[in-house]
Design goal:
Length: 291
């Protein structure tokens, strides 16, 4: 079995750093279904127990929306103490905030800081001062060696494309392979074309993850053409795999998810599988040689 660097894991402690949508277990029910079963506390030790049958190399922690993101990132970093597992941090912030520069500087001081995630993309290419500030703020990430992760829906991928062109110095990872909204066959073809457009800019990559959030009760046959379309657009050297645990528990689980990945990507060469399983995430988030 190949070593896994899971590119999207959520660790949280609702008692100490509340995540807003976990405080109200109805807030995002339309998006992910009934999530009342999600734990109030999910630590790296919990994750290790859940993945104990797999050769884990490390995880990329993604802030799920903690009230104090710097405090949550420092807590997540401490989770790796005493664990034989790499852990890297992707925080969550709003680039339109006046406090963005100071926040990024503070976050970058953490030893395991790897990137910042934004949930939506401001319309770029216009003349508005807000757009200019967002672009300027995002450009600061390159100076701190931080990757930008963009969570955007399928109908926002043209904005991601403009963002990537405007910031060639910033490494940009498209979250959830562009989070398709129209899951029809026509929607799949249109989404594939939008992914190819984003991938035409060389400073972009994508995370393949969150299958339960995107598709609901998914099956391997259902997701196969979507995942292969992402692979076709970006190539294995710019695609990385993740679990989205513990959220993915609502639909499947770690073993079922990685069995799906093994099936879907069975046609890849060994070195391409190494990229998907750990190499791409290592390069884009840690800057490390994945060998």
């Amino acid at each position: 079995m190949r070593e896994i660097l899971d590119c999207n894991v959520h660790l949280w402690d609702q008692r100490d750093d509340p995540v807003f949508w976990l405080a109200d277990r109805t807030m995002v029910r339309d998006m992910i279904g009934d999530y009342s079963s999600l734990p109030d506390v999910y630590t790296l030790a919990d994750y290790r127990r859940e993945t104990s049958d797999h050769p884990m190399r490390g995880v990329i922690w993604s802030d799920a929306g903690a009230a104090d993101p710097l405090h949550a990132a420092a807590w997540a970093q401490r989770q790796a103490d005493g664990q034989d597992l790499e852990l890297w941090l992707v925080t969550l912030a709003d680039p339109a905030s006046a406090g963005w520069p100071a926040f990024v500087r503070s976050f970058a001081e953490l030893d395991r800081a790897a990137g910042v995630r934004i949930r939506t993309v401001a319309a770029l290419g216009g003349s508005g001062s807000d757009d200019e500030q967002v672009t300027r703020h995002l450009g600061l990430l390159a100076g701190h060696g931080l990757t930008l992760t963009v969570e955007a829906g399928g109908d926002q991928l043209d904005q991601v494309l403009r963002l990537a062109r405007a910031l060639p110095q910033v490494s940009i990872v498209l979250d959830h392979f562009g989070w398709p909204g129209d899951l029809s066959e026509v929607g799949r073809r249109e989404h594939a074309e939008r992914l190819k457009a984003v991938a035409s800019v060389p400073n972009t990559a994508t995370r393949i993850d969150a299958l339960g959030t995107v598709f609901g009760d998914w099956t391997t046959d259902r997701v196969r053409p979507w995942l292969l379309a992402a692979l076709d657009a970006f190539g294995p050297h710019r695609c990385m795999l993740g679990s989205d645990l513990p959220i993915e528990r609502l639909r499947s689980g770690f073993a079922a998810l990685y069995d799906c990945y093994t099936d879907v990507f069975a046609g890849c060469a060994p070195h391409e599988l190494d990229d998907l399983w750990h190499g791409t995430a290592a390069r884009w988030y840690t800057g490390a040689d994945p060998s």
